[in-house]
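Morning. Coffee machine broken again, so started the prediction first thing and wrote up yesterday's gels while waiting. Chain of 121 residues, entered below exactly as on the submission form.
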Amino acid sequence: MSCRVLIVEDEAIIAMDLEMMLQDEGCDVVATVASVKTALEQIGQHDLDCAFLDINLGQEQVFPVADALAKKGVPFALLSGHTKAVVPPAHLGRPALPKPYLKKDVLQILEQLRGKTAPAS
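Came back before lunch.
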């Protein structure tokens, strides 16, 4: 069964790299977007299995998207090259992937999001 994934990332090269990693694992990347507005539209249009969210999207942060996914029960991971200090308390327990990341780290988070492994401590 394919895993339907949303990627929210404003750096094109990072987004393409992540998309290729996930597609290589048989995921259906339903959309790769770079803004909160577009991400929220995609959430409304697709049934998602999980998502990868870059915290900083230019001048905005991804937390409205995180809130919308949480409300729908869609698991997601936060991506960041910075500290988790900006993460609201409601999302502190979410899986996080520091940038730069390796493919093995992405795959580990993917398995966690798909519910196939226990969360990392």
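Residues 15 and 46 are 19 Å apart (CA to CA). Going to sketch it on the whiteboard this afternoon.
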